[in-house]
Task: structure prediction
Amino acid sequence: MKITYAQIKKIFVLAKERDLDNDILHDYIFMITKKEHINELTKAEGIEVINSLSPARQPMRGNNMASEKQLNYIKGLAKDMGWNSKRLNGFVKKVGSVDDIRFLTKVNASKVIEGLKKLFEKGEQYYGRFDEKIQ
Result:
């Protein structure tokens, strides 16, 4: 069954509450469902996206986990460099040693931020190449 209008509306409301712009929202949805357009989602996939965006469903972040401010800064830098979520997660895996941005610790998030800032300042966009070490 196809996603309902009410579900689409709810997804956009939750995204706005979490300060996700349209591009990041679509990358997020693709990461979860492997579908590029919201209208392609099924009702069940819509529920999955809504649940993942809902604050009550978000895992409790321990004292050692990256703050929302750090995560939003990382996403913003990635967006400014034209990176999609796949490229960002590849960079996070290389620099932060975790498979997804959500699992970064404060220390590793700082390393990722510094690495992204260096790349951004130099104007270098690796377009998926992470074979060079970031010092």
Q: What stands out?
A: Helices lie at 5-17, 22-33, 43-53, 68-80, 85-96, 106-122. The radius of gyration is 16 Å.
